[in-house]
Write a structure and sequence with these properties.
Layout lengths: L4 H8 L3 E2 L4 E5 L4 E5 L2 E2 L17 E3 L3 H12 L3 E11 L2 E10 L3 H24 L1
Antiparallel strand pairs: 1-4, 2-3, 3-5, 6-7
């Protein structure tokens, strides 16, 4: 990840939220960008050296790896999501997850399971 100093210090202190984050993979130019991740401002940084909390950050990777991720992300219903930030040898690394949306049939199965569990709970309440 390409970060500024105050971002690194905030990440080391655990002031980062990946919940709303996602990664955009573009083929021209070949690059990965991180969107929607909130890294809190570092309180001890001077005013001129403070970073913007939700700016778009560039991710560093080999061109071959980026092309694989672009191919995956261009398929309908698929996206790249950030899972974890960690440090290796003084460099911040980002663990990416390859996510695929649910199909209509999967949603129906989940709804059927939820309805069945509600019915069982209702039956157990009446019994007691």
């Amino acid at each position: 990840m390409v970060l500024v100093g105050s971002e690194v210090k905030s990440i080391r202190s655990g002031q980062v939220s990946l919940a709303e984050g996602w990664v955009r993979a573009s083929e021209r130019p070949v690059k990965l960008t991180l969107h929607g991740v909130h890294i809190a401002e570092y309180p001890n940084a001077s005013k001129g050296h403070q970073h913007e909390p939700t700016r778009i950050r560039v991710l560093l990777a080999h061109k071959r790896e980026i092309r694989k991720l672009v191919k995956f992300a261009q398929s309908p219903g698929r996206t790249l999501v950030p899972l974890k930030i960690f440090f290796v040898g003084g460099k911040a690394k980002l663990l990416l997850g390859l996510a695929q949306g649910k199909h209509r049939s999967d949603k129906r199965q989940d709804l059927a399971k939820r309805d069945a569990s509600r019915e069982m709970e209702r039956a157990m309440k009446r019994r007691i």
